[in-house]
Every structure is written in C-alpha cells, then in structure tokens.
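name: query_chain
kind: protein
chains: 1
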Amino acid sequence: MPYKAGYPGCRAFLFTAYMYYTKSATSVVRQLEQLQQRGLEIKDIHEARHFLLTMGYYRLAGYWWPMQADKVSHVFKPNSRFEDVVALYNFDRELRLLLFGMIEKIEIALRTALVYYLSNEFNAWWFQDAGLFINVREHVKTLAHIEEELDRSKDIFIKDHFKRYKSDQRFPPAWKTLEITSFGSLSKLYGNLKPTITSKDVIAAAFQTVNHTFLPSWLQSIAQIRNICAHHGRLWNKNLPGRPNLLPKPPAPWLNNVPPATMHHLLYVHVCCMKYLLNVIHPANPFTSRLQALFETYPNVDLNALGFPAHWNTEPLWQ
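structure:
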C-alpha cells in the first residue's frame, strides 16, 4: 500500500504511478509488417510466417534482440536478416539437446552417490532426517517437492511400494524415492547437508571437486541449466542466475585461462564445470567433439555471447 498524507507511521509522501499493460494481440501479417518496417530483412515471407506461427513472436524476439540498434524503438542494425534469427534459434535448440544429454549423466551419477554413501553412513531414510541438514526450513520445502514427485509418479515400483507397505508412513527408501527425484531437489539435498557429515566430502572427492565447499554451487548451476533445457528456454546470450564456486587448484585437468568472475553469468564457465564432472564420470565422453561439430555447423553464431574464448578446445579440460 503506498503511503498517504496522515497515514500512521508515514515518513514521507510517496506518489505511486500505476502502469497498466495496454498492448493487444496482433496478427502474423502485422507482425511481419512491423519487423520489416523496423529494418529486419525477410527474404521468404511464407517461411517467416510459418516460423512465427510455430515458434511465436515473443520466443524469437530473444534471438533478434541483439540485432537491434535501438532497444527502445526496436530499429534493427543494417543487414539484419530473419534467416539469421532462425539459424540462431536452431543452434540454441541443438545446444540445449546436447547439454541435456550430458547433464543426464551427471544427474544419474549424483543420484547414485547420494543413495549409496548416505544410506550406508546412516540409513535408507536419511533424506527425511531433519537433523542432518543445515537449514531445516529449506529441507521441509525440498521434502514437499519430493512428496509431490512421489504423488505424480506412475512408476510401478513406487506404486507397488505404497500398496505393499500401507502402514509405513515414511517415504519409500532412498534407492526408490531418489530414483524419481528431480536434479534440482537432489542438488538441494546435497548442498543442505551439514558439513560434518562424512559422505558430503566423500561425494565431492569422488567427483574430484576436493570437498563440499565447491560442489554444491556447481550442481545448483547445472540444475538451473537443466531446467532451461527441459522447458525449451534460451541459452544463447543468456544471463544465467547461478555462479559456480571454482576450485583454485583442481586435481583433474582444468583451464589455463579461467574466465574472470565478470563473465560467470555466461554459459562457458558452467559448461566447463559440466565437462570437468563428465571427465570423472565418463572419461571417454564425446562432449568436446559434439560441441565442436555444433559450432562448425553454425559458423555465423557469435560464441562471445556464450562466453566461449577463441581457442576454447585447446584447453587441457577439453582435450
């Protein structure tokens, strides 16, 4: 509520200007006319119409945004072409598919490690024990998400467990429950574990990230990227929310030229963390060759928008 004159406890008079969204929906024909009027070259109108109808104006706008010379009037720079927008969109889509497949390996390895080490250190229901976690409130939220995932699960082994053990009010044991738990919840469980728990450091060491100081931020940033991929979001030229806490002296091959912290919002450093973990989990992984092939397929894509340096593939990490 804005402060008003005479309002009890008012320290200042504030006048709030309320703004309402007034733009209405427009036809594809009008959208195309508007793009052309703003300077975007459209070679094939019928093809452009198809893309706008199947991908959406607003989704594609994220890819032509850097092509605009004026972000207020939305006037495009000279030689801006619709086909370049589509190529950039297709590149980003293939990049998401590639990363999603690589993240799957990290997710499965994390799930396996959590189940194995913590179930043996404590018991099969360690993830429900609030005494093992730093922030109890966050732990309760994570359990609520896991319970929702259990309720939604169509897996036979979950349904069979609840049917067979009706009187057991606990969640199914870790090796069942965490099998259907999302990467986001898994990363939160690990990050929220108390630092005194032995398995927390054992798991970090198994991933060659030394100790629990570094791995949680890596997993959180990767989980965020996974969600972007799963929901078909944009990665190119994206200001990513997570910031991985980088190892000062990694025990495994890393980067000779580490990006400065001012570039950690771009994809490159996050992908480097993925590659580092993959090299431990799956040493013969094809990440480098597949990523290089993707870049070669789309040579006009500006890799600076992803934070990739010119000779990224010559770094020890990517060999």
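note: DSSP finds twelve helices and two strands in the chain.
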